[in-house]
């Protein structure tokens, strides 16, 4: 269900269940979490096999859950989304085809969401009497704003890649999302980790600024020779 391949500074993590539009079971979520957290590469590229990115939770699993089991499944998905957000690696979600429900929520946890022109996005849970519970009600308003988030989640409507870019749901629209992962991997890995950590820091602003200065000092000291060479060139 989850395949990994390490290549030139990028770990490619593929959701590989195309016959089910890469819908995730509990075991699939666990395997995805391990694939992301175990990565030593500076960049993780998350993609789906076949014509969809990810349909979210496997509804056959959801249909068999009682109340406690459903709550546990939601918490499992939240844990995986948190692992993506908190990973040392920069995580790029390459979205080609349909992203639905939990698929959108996992992409929201990534650092960059890069879509092909064929990508589409929806939070259709409301049509089934459900909603996105893998952190969707938390991350979606942060990424696109409360108004757009409510529109998507309350209507269940589908938006195309360009509409998603305009609302901030995706960072770029390109024919080759993997190239963006390679672009990031060409940068200094320590700086990638530092920038991600600083951007993800939710400490009070004064603490964030102090940490920012400290890490900047560490990087300058580490790269002093390269900075001097660049200045003299």
Automatic annotation (TrEMBL):
Gene3D superfamilies: 2-enoyl-CoA Hydratase, Chain A, domain 1 (3.90.226.10). InterPro entries: ClpP/crotonase-like_dom_sf, Enoyl-CoA_hyd/isom_CS, Enoyl-CoA_hydra/iso. Coiled coil: none annotated. Pfam families: ECH_1. Belongs to the enoyl-CoA hydratase/isomerase family. This is Enoyl-CoA hydratase/isomerase family protein.
């Amino acid at each position: 269900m989850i395949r990994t391949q390490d290549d030139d500074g990028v770990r490619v993590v593929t959701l590989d269940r195309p016959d089910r539009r890469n819908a995730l079971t509990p075991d699939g979520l666990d395997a995805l979490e391990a694939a992301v957290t175990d990565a030593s590469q500076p960049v993780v590229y998350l993609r789906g096999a076949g014509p969809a990115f990810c349909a979210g939770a496997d509804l056959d699993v959801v249909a068999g859950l009682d109340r406690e089991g459903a709550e546990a499944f939601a918490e499992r998905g939240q844990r995986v989304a948190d692992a993506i957000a908190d990973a040392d690696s920069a995580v790029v979600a390459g979205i080609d085809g349909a992203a639905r429900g939990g698929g959108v929520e996992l992409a929201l946890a990534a650092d960059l969401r890069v879509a092909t022109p064929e990508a589409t996005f929806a939070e259709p849970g409301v049509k089934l009497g459900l909603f996105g519970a893998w952190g969707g009600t938390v991350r979606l308003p942060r990424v696109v704003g409360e108004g757009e988030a409510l529109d998507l989640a309350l209507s269940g409507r589908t938006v195309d890649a360009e509409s998603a870019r305009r609302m901030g749901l995706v960072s770029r629209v390109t024919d080759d999302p993997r190239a963006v992962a390679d672009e990031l991997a060409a940068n200094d890995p320590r700086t990638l980790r530092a920038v991600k950590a600083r951007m993800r820091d939710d400490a009070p602003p004064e603490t964030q600024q102090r940490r920012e200065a400290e890490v900047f000092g560490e990087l300058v000291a580490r790269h002093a020779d390269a900075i001097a060479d660049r200045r003299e060139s």
